[in-house]
Design a protein that fits this description.
Elements: H1 2-15, H2 18-47, H3 63-98, H4 106-123, E1 126-130, H5 139-158, E2 164-168, H6 175-183, E3 193-194, H7 199-202, E4 208-211, E5 227-231, H8 242-249, E6 253-255, H9 259-262, E7 263-265, H10 279-292, H11 295-302, E8 309-311
Parallel strand pairs: 1-2, 1-5, 2-3, 4-5, 4-6
Antiparallel strand pairs: 7-8
Length: 316
């Protein structure tokens, strides 16, 4: 009897598929009961409130998972909204600060800048940088001058009414030219004239006005019929009246910026007061005045307080 029962038991166990045996061995009774409970929950969720599960990959329908999914979707939506608001804020700042339409592409803006500069060549004010005095300058001074040329050109590109710029007395095999190529990106593509000729032989002498701080005459206006010359000179030893004497040798009119007329000296610890400005600072003043016709506003743009001068109405 015992043998028959044992045999029947073996036969019954042999009817169970091999895979199910492996599962039973791995999970045990506790694992089996857990599986049944999960199946029961899954069945209940499928019929709850008439909801249907998405087709495709298996998705749990527990309320906890659904709550986490909704929370994650809210987080993603909030991040997208924040990025959109930040993008709109940057566009608004761009329009407010520069007046540029945000819909315009970089290619369009580049084309617009090129068009304005080429138009200035025919109908705009003209500015000539005299670079014929660089042969005595040190490498450090040449580097500083190259940086000033870059900043001057950058300001001119941003101007609503740009000047046409000419770099005169500028040899392409000079140390200054090599320095400009080295530190100024895209220098060879600058929209300006470069010539080895001296500025005094390029234009009629009666049209030239050499801007120098040593002149007795204050500049009153920017005349489209004149060519204004800036001396491209960075001289740490501060040799006085170099540009003024050069202009007198060629019988060319001179003028200085009206700093003395609109600004006053301000006391400082070093008792330092200077009207000598970098060429890009002088250009910023000329460009601002040409657009605004306001000397105080223009001088404020280019004359730093470190020079020891302030506008008359700003003195307490």
């Amino acid at each position: 009897m015992d043998w028959k029962l044992e045999g029947s038991t073996r036969e019954t166990e042999s009817d169970v598929p091999q895979e199910q045996e492996v599962i039973l061995e791995d999970t045990g009774e506790d694992g089996l009961s857990d599986s049944f409970r999960l199946l029961q929950i899954d069945t209940e969720c499928e019929h709850q409130k008439g909801e249907t599960l998405p087709t495709g990959a298996a998705v749990w329908c527990s309320k906890n998972v659904q709550r986490k999914q909704r929370h994650w979707e809210k987080v993603v939506a909030a991040k997208k909204s924040k990025r959109k608001q930040e993008k709109e804020r940057r566009k608004a700042n761009l329009v407010e600060n520069s007046g540029i339409c945000p819909q315009h592409s970089k290619r369009f803006l580049k084309s617009l800048t090129k068009e304005k500069l080429l138009e200035a060549k025919h109908s705009g004010p003209r500015l000539c940088i005299d670079l014929s005095m660089t042969h005595h300058m040190s490498k450090k001074e040449l580097s500083r001058l190259a940086g000033q040329i870059r900043r001057l050109y950058g300001s001119n590109k941003k101007a609503d009414r740009p000047f046409w710029i000419c770099l005169a007395g500028f040899a392409t095999d000079s140390p200054l030219y090599e320095e400009c190529l080295r530190i100024n990106d895209g220098f060879s593509s600058y929209l300006l004239d470069i010539t080895e000729e001296d500025c005094f032989s390029l234009f009629p002498l009666e049209t030239l006005v050499y801007l120098t701080p040593d002149s007795e005459h204050a500049l009153e206006d920017v005349d489209l019929n004149k060519v204004y010359i800036l001396g491209g000179l960075v001289d740490e030893s501060i040799q006085k009246k170099v540009t003024f004497q050069k202009a007198r040798e060629h019988s060319v009119k001179t003028a200085r910026l009206p700093i003395q007329e609109y600004m006053v000296r301000r006391k400082n610890e070093k008792n330092y007061h200077s009207e000598i400005l970098a060429i890009n600072q002088v250009f910023d003043i000329l460009s601002t005045y040409f657009e605004t016709q306001n000397w105080p506003e223009a001088l404020k743009k280019g004359v730093s307080s470190r020079k020891g001068y302030v506008l008359q109405n700003s003195v307490e």
